[in-house]
Amino acid sequence: MTTAAEPGQEVGKGRLRKEDARLITGRTRWTDNISLPGMLHMAVLRSPMAHARITNIDPSEARQMPGVLAVVTGADLADKQGSLPCAWPIAEDMKSPDAPSMAVNQVNFAGEVVAAVVARSAAEAADALEGIDVDYDELPVVLDLEQAIADGADLVHPDLGTNKSATWIFDSAEAGTGGPVDEAIASAEVTVERTFRQQRLIPAFMEPRSVVVDPTGEQVTMWSATQIPHILRLMLAMTLGVPEHKVRVIAPDVGGGFGGKLQVTPEEVITFLLAQQLGRPVKYTETRSESLASAHHGRDQLQKLTIAARRDGTVTGLKVELLADMGAYLRLVTPGVPILGAFMYNAIYKIPAYHFACTNVFTTKTPTDAYRGAGRPEATFAIERMMDELANELGMDPLDVREMNWIKHEEFPYTTVSTLTYDSGNYEAATARAKELFDYDGLRREQAERRQRGDTVQLGIGISTFTEMCGLAPSRVLGSLSYGAGGWEYGAIRMLPTGKVEVITGSSAHGQGHETAWSQIVADKLGVPFEDIEVLHGDTQSSPRGMDTYGSRSLTVGAMAVLSAADKVIEKAKPIAAHMMECSPDDLEFANGTFTVRGTDTSTGIADVALAVFAAHDLPDGVEPSLDSDATFDPENFSFPHGTHLCAAEADTETGQVRLRAYVAVDDVGKVVNPLIVEGQVHGGLVQGIAQALFEEAVYDESGTLMTGTLADYLVPSAADMPSFTTDRTETPSTTNALGVKGVGEAGTIASTPAVVNAIVDAIRHMGVNDVEMPCTPMRVWQAIQGGAQSAAGPGAEPGGGMGSLDAEGGAR
Amino acid sequence: MIPAEFDYVAPTTVDDAVRALADAGDEAKILAGGQSLIPVLRMRLAAPTKLIDLGKVTELQGVREDGGALVIGAMTTHYDVVRDPLIAEHAKLIGMATSTVADPQVRHRGTFGGSLAHADPAGDLAAPALALDVEMVVHGMDGRRTIPASEFFVDYFTTALRPGELLTEVRVPKYTGWHAHYEKFNRVAQAWSIVGVAAAVQVEGHTITQARVGLTNMSSVPVRASGVERALVGQEATPEAIKAAAQHAVEGTMPVADGNADAAYREHLAKVLTSRAVTAACG
Ligand SMILES: Cc1cc2nc3c(=O)[nH]c(=O)nc-3n(C[C@H](O)[C@H](O)[C@H](O)COP(=O)(O)OP(=O)(O)OC[C@H]3O[C@@H](n4cnc5c(N)ncnc54)[C@H](O)[C@@H]3O)c2cc1C
Fold it and tell me: Are residues A83 and A227 in the same domain?
């Protein structure tokens, strides 16, 4: 007889992650580790030109090369490849060009696929690329957002007649949620206007994308390093016209995504088509350089903001005008990314009049799409920078201005000017804790002293009191935003005869730790030991339904589905347990994995019920022999994590170098399932957000070539470049889900960027600086201090300078 | 990323390596730690038909004393240079500069000789080598010859090594009792120098009696800051005097512009960092 273990409370325990040993050692099923009998290898040829007509492709030499089985060009695939999907048409009149996986007549960004080789080995495939001869007829490049929408601009897609894809507007006066913003600005006692540039970033996940397609079974099986196996299956079916039930997609262990693997990629489609054509398994794994150049990028917006306020600091209006760079095509959710930000510019503040307008613009650059935070970091950066600028304009402490305008904890639930209802929050508590940990007053004193004595190293304090909307998403809200799908999630529980439990989740972990967290949740719910639970995910065969993982949705939506499936298991077990103990189901209590007859010590463990169900020898009449249950959860609302981040930055005024001296993050992510996982998400998120502030930028030269094409030029920081973080939490449970959880996947990234830039500007503001463009390189900071270039952008936008003096484009400079 | 096909040999002696190089002709490349060469091959910026791996030539590894000089084998890894007691005692500047190179993984594979032969103007070891007037010992089919550091670095990625020649050793005069500092300026920890300054000084009482200063990445080759050296000698080691001398740092430089720095900013950095390097060296 198995008895349910004494369940300690699992939820809340800082357990080491089950999945870590295999993920950290790499001894696991990464897609590129998969090797099938008879498997062939694909390599793709990419356009070195940003914008050109393909006048001729001659693959004849490649076809003769050793080991080569096929060489295909766009012309060969034109009839089969369809158009890569865009699931988020933000406006009815949105302009969306045809998006071939392999360019047919024209290339629109450098890195676009123009041909593919399939060979017996990966080396032979790579060699054969040199045997393909492509002639290009160059077209003018379109690189600058403002120039792209000016009259007479060169066009990326001439047939569209414009580089504008769509304009999306929210206006509080029209929506009835607030006043007209132009009146607020006209009648304001103070206005501040700023333009910020959200530089282009590259998700830079650790595992490059990889795909294996096996066409030899009845179903075609695709393994892919993707965040979205379920969406991918549906989209393959819709794009290629293959019946959905004939496709199985597996996301095995996936080494990070950050939104960068929330995509249906050209390479997935091409591999699928070539495997089908050749009738043999085909693998494609991108190189890091290919990943940097052609996997989708993130951010890239020009943000113009005007904030209106009274002299006492009360904000009276906010106007936001954006230009968002789509790149050359609209990928899966490209157009919607900046729109997600629309709801977040008002942030934690009570703003009585709000206007948001975003114009999506085509350029001859790599398409953009979701990147950690997707729209919300951009919004948070802009509003948090503006709050500092407003405070400076008013001569107030920036924390005081924020406090004056934020929603008080007793005002929740609170419906914002941008129509969201924040269910809970306590900005006062998080801020108080952060100030205490940071020694806010002490650092302000030191800052004054350093200014006083004209120290070479100046100190600045940066603040970010952020919130975000996550837990994507209530399906009806997605519907109202014209998104192409719902936002629910699926979960299921399988009770095995030995009392072990399989948990199936439609979320698709790619480093987050679902296996551990879901096990903790189910262990508590069913009263089975943590070790007895296996979490299955990322395979359309074992987890048949799902909306996958992005937007900090897995816990708030995915785990909720698992939890309701577990509830159903208990309900199903109850009549059987009653039958076993010869009592009425109404007399049973369930706790710690055991059904007890109320008021007696007669009991049966859930494992015993599972075994009895397996045997099915003696079940109550009409009861099916299964405890297995599933559930689909559609959230009623988003969740709204928030927090206060404080950053102390030292700026070396002689060199412009910035060193982060202290960083305090107090986050409120509601109930915490596993504090260690939360801590990991916060740390990683902080580094990624700080990287935007200080280090990372995808830089293009004037010909549209990506100059930061290796990790020696695209500066992803490491632990050595970071301060030691001080983290803490306040805990204000979400009131919209039974777990009280909010989501933590993006919080650190969203919060940290403005905290750092605010700190830098604060350090050198007395030297006449009120902005430094990101990334705040030493040269930009130094030039800002020199009062040189107006925006302190200037030559820092030039490429190069990474691989020592080695130019990845060809030898020494 | 897969390099083009090549042949591979791993000789165990210098003589065999020289012969292998001669046999293979122009199409061969020496493989030392591979930290610069392998990326070049993988990106297919070069496609040598033969690699001659020096990894098994044990006589090229390690540091020894030879009278008034230290001899650093070309295949001594950065990691070994950093923790070598002879270098710490007699050529501290080289140890300090090497400790700023890249990250631990790269320092365990990359070599002293490979770095110098690669002659990347952003590399950190050429400027100290130049400042300390080291001598490069090279072997070819015609035997052994030496090249002073001042003649070794010719241009971007170009040295005075002739085809068929191998850098085998670096002879460093002893700078016992000198103070030194390498001031490196970069944006992330593992990156090359945007500008670097190598400084070694002799100080008697408070007076600087000798000074050697080399600059990294201020030209296509490392630059000896002779003007700074002259201005320092005989001066009291005060911040003002050092700062004044450091203004000469831009003499003879031809800095390039790239994503990290334009020429004017590099010139500014050279002065600031020279001042800092010398100040730190003086203690
Ligand atoms: C991520 C990363 C960061 C780095 N950061 C820095 C840094 O901050 N500072 C810095 O200085 N360097 C840096 N490097 C470069 C590193 O120091 C390399 O080790 C060095 O430049 C080359 O040494 P190697 O032994 O690896 O030579 P290899 O890569 O094997 O060879 C380099 C070149 O020299 C030639 N060569 C090698 N040995 C000989 C010889 N004995 N005789 C003749 N020719 C020879 C080769 O043929 C080749 O052309 C970095 C490298 C990486 C990968």
Answer: yes
